[in-house]
Design a protein that fits this description.
By secondary structure, the protein is an alpha/beta fold. The chain contains 14 helices and 13 strands. 42% of the residues lie in helices and 17% in strands. The site of pyridoxal-5'-phosphate (PLP) has 12 residues, from helix 3. The site of pyridoxal-5'-phosphate has 12 residues, from helix 3.
Length: 342
């Protein structure tokens, strides 16, 4: 690998900036196990207010936030309705089955789904059938290429779920991107759901950290579940300060990330080594379908020229714009990936 690289594997590869490191160093901290960390307490209250929820809990990862939510809303044997390729089902090491004893049923195709597709999966109450316990939406949807879940579908799905007394969780690891793209406020995006998980370690550039949001009762129980999962926290003000710095300084930059992704896909449109519909690129994730070469060969070739991307199974090459990538980097990376495919 060259010394200078352009890392487009994910929006999790960013390193804390100087300003973020300073904010971390300056954070006033205490032992969160005693409720004594003022920075964490202030941060959790601020994030709860931002999303219009009663309470918030800092957790180390989006995975832990999602898994606590699944446990909160379900009983062993329940079914969870979810979109295809959802992170919770695909990338969390089977945790939902291991920790909560639930199984997933997939609504629709490609990650986004409709009210009718959800309705078809809701089980009638019957001793022989699993109970439908929870409905989940991922917004933006990672494997669907950062697509924003259409708000009219969110409202239709959640209205029906409410009518059927089903719990609702939003995996909002990239809710910031959905907000930046749709212009909808964070509380509007969160409102239809009982619980919401959000990540600060992706587009906002923090080194670690997610938050679970819900009612005060949800969060009180979640604090116990977090402990049971080994997530008892101490001087987390340092981490909350990083997350807060990302919120205050990097949220506004996501539109630039999205513009760079759009520029990248427009540069690839004329390359006959890939297929990609520019209209499908709504935020910062680009899925290219390699048509001539195996994705592993493309990834290896690009790496030799200092551009890091991922092969994602099948013919897919995944490219993700992030805080550490400039306009110039996009031009260079597009050039490298065009050559790598031919
Ligand atoms: C949609 C989505 N949810 C949850 C997660 C889990 O976050 P973490 O890696 O912090 O566990 C990710 C991670 O990429 C994600 O993309």
């Amino acid at each position: 690998m060259r010394a200078m690289t352009i890392d487009l594997r994910s929006d999790t590869v960013t390193k804390p900036t100087e300003g973020m490191r300073r904010a971390m160093a300056d954070a006033i901290v205490g032992d969160d196990g005693y409720g004594d960390d003022p920075t964490a307490n202030k941060f959790e209250a601020r994030i709860a207010a931002l999303f219009g929820k009663e309470a918030a809990l800092f957790v180390p990862s989006g995975t832990m936030a999602n898994q606590i939510a699944i446990r909160l809303h379900t009983k062993p044997g329940d079914e969870v309705i979810i979109g295809e390729g959802a992170h919770c089902m695909h990338y969390e090491s089977g945790a939902a089955a291991a920790l909560s004893g639930v199984q997933f049923v997939i609504a629709g195709k490609g990650g986004l789904y409709t009210r009718a597709e959800m309705e078809a999966l809701v089980r009638p109450i019957d001793l022989y059938l699993p109970r439908t316990g929870l409905v989940m939406i991922e917004n933006t949807h990672n494997r669907a290429g950062g697509r924003v879940f259409p708000q009219n579908d969110v409202l239709a799905i959640t209205e029906l779920a409410r009518a059927k007394n089903l719990a609702l969780h939003l995996d909002g690891a990239r809710i910031w991107n959905a907000h930046a793209k749709s212009g909808l406020s964070l509380d509007v995006l969160a409102k239809p759901f009982d619980t919401v998980s959000v990540c600060f370690s992706k587009g906002l550039g923090a080194p670690v950290g997610s938050v679970l949001l819900g009612t005060s009762e949800h969060i009180e129980i979640s604090r116990r579940y977090r402990k049971q999962l080994g997530g008892g926290m101490r001087q987390i003000g340092i981490l909350c300060a990083a997350a807060e710095y990302g919120l205050d300084n990097h949220l506004k930059l996501l539109v630039d990330d999205h513009a760079r992704a759009a520029r990248f896909v427009s540069l690839m449109a004329s390359c006959d080594g890939y297929k990609c519909d520019p209209k499908s690129v709504e935020t910062n994730i680009i899925n290219l379908e390699a048509t001539k070469k195996h994705p592993d060969d493309i990834v290896a070739q690009a790496l030799k020229e200092g551009v890091l991307v991922n092969a994602e199974g099948g013919s897919r090459v995944r490219v993700v714009t992030n805080l550490g990538v400039s306009d110039k980097d996009i031009e260079v990376a597009a050039d490298v990936l065009r050559r790598a495919a031919s």
